[in-house]
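Following up on my earlier message about flavin-adenine dinucleotide. Here are the inputs again, as you asked, copied directly from the submission form:
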Amino acid sequence: MPDYSAPLADMRFVLENIVDLPALAALPGFEHAEPDMVYGVLEESGRLFTQEFAPLNRVGDTQHSRRHDDGSVTTPEGFARAYRRYTEAGWAGVSFPADYGGGGFPWLVTIAMQEMMTAANMAFSLCPLLTQGAIDMLLHYGSEAQREVYLPRMVTGEWTGTMNLTEPQAGSDVGALTTKAVPADDGTWRITGQKIFITYGEHDLADNIVHLVLARVPDAPPGTKGISCFIVPKVLVHDDGSLGERNSLECVSIEQKMGINASPTCVMVYDGAVGYLIGEPNQGMRYMFKMMNTARLSVGVSGLALGERAYQQAVAYALERRQGRAPGAPAGESSPIMDHPDVRRMLLTMRAHVEALRCLAYLNAESLDLAARHPDEAVRTWRQELADLLTPITKAWGTDLGNELTSLAVQVHGGMGYIEETGVAQHYRDIRIAAIYEGTNGIQAMDLVARKLPMRSGGVINDYLAGITDTAAELAKEGGDLAAIGAHLADAQASLKSTTDWLLANGLPDASDTLAGATPYLRMCGIVTGGWLLARSAQAAQRLLDDGEGDADFLRQKLVTARFYAEQFLPQAAGLVPAVTAGSADLQAAAF
Ligand SMILES: Cc1cc2nc3c(=O)[nH]c(=O)nc-3n(C[C@H](O)[C@H](O)[C@H](O)COP(=O)(O)OP(=O)(O)OC[C@H]3O[C@@H](n4cnc5c(N)ncnc54)[C@H](O)[C@@H]3O)c2cc1C
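Thanks, got it. Here's what our run produced:
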């Protein structure tokens, strides 16, 4: 199996041309994150991911994490060492505040690192990813005392974190959860209940696991309005941060899964476990909503990451495998399958979507950074709106594509793709979950249509669409390939605008029509956004070529990719218009 190599040149191109890393690094608080420093971090961390994490991907897939009778869990061989290397290098806390031992870098840098870590080893990457979510929660809503005790150890990676939402009867409908929290005399709480599917709920990578558990306090209102959030550490912690007794909680089993086998997916039982309330009672869901943008963005990035890794493997295989004679090849010789037009179509489809997803994920991350740090309030507001709008698209389009692109990589490998030894089948199995967890992709589509389109009475989506029109108009003036890309972009934007208007007009009083069109609408948003960002990438590449800057071969390939996407995928937006606007009559009429 060929190794994964970090796509640093592509990442840098996006950081400089689609988002503006130098401008971000000039903002108050980010001054030390100047671009050369960031590129150094990416190169150095990329080396660890490619050299240490990537070779463990297959080991993890075959060995799985294993639970023992005493409830402890052993991760696959080499994981503990790799985790140590990761934390010792300081990579766990790159974007968290320096006050707690972090690097104070923009979130954008973490997302770029996450792309490489997830590509190298998705099952491994989930432990740091969940820990980041728990840190984020404590940073925003933990008390000062809670932050002082937990954050320095979590930011360094000495302790890890989990998110405990799901129960057997409470999946997408988190409001149905029944885990109970009862106040104790000393101001702490006693947590009792069962959580399922808890990622890294138990493991041997760190000394302590800080579980964030959603539960109901006595007399809590029903549904999501009555959910509170608690810190429930695996090992109780003294005020000075030293470890005390084991808390009353246990991993009672781990799931056998389709993929990410190294990631222990635990059934957790809390039996009167000591818990500490975060913030106010009954506000847990509100706090979780605040955290969702970063977690969903990270899951979207997994589609990009595995798409990239599968693409690299598919290219390597297509160069090596010889079958048949490609058009124009000398008689009597078999050709590398790379020379067959249909194989090139599959490879370019993968490359175009991976590049579009990278632009989208980094734009989404930059928006979160600007929303948090930009000195101009108007910029902060717009970037928060943009992040809110883009997040369900990054999550759902990103992970749908993760599934499609890894499937294409299997196809490029032919029968060998279906054989585990090649390694490409693992990516296909691993990424399948990403469309399901962190809010299923159906829920993302509903979020986009029911919550995000109505923002500012449709003003946010319409401002966004106007920006796409501006790019198309700029391209039209350029002539040549860029104008052709611009024409496709303008057509696709018009289709998206027409469905957006329809959804905004038909949202009420009966939501079933708009919800019936939500998934194809999200797909349209993804297709058009991808085309817009690749068009901007082509524009930047042409500008650099005209100025005689950069690697000309690399830049010319950006133009090829953008043209291919504009010709082959942007026209699909128009084809989705009927699916978005069909309404729900057929769906309701169908008998099952
Ligand atoms: C490997 C793995 C790791 C996980 N890690 C964690 C974790 O660390 N912490 C945690 O708390 N949870 C975790 N989960 C749980 C995960 O978040 C849930 O599985 C997910 O939220 C979906 O819930 P569900 O499985 O109950 O599916 P359901 O909610 O039963 O959904 C089934 C189907 O119905 C659709 N559906 C449901 N409700 C609606 C609706 N209102 N409108 C339209 N369609 C709807 C869904 O889109 C889906 O297609 C994990 C799950 C797995 C498999």
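One observation from looking it over: Residues 284-320 form the longest helix (37 residues). Hope that helps, and feel free to reply on this thread.
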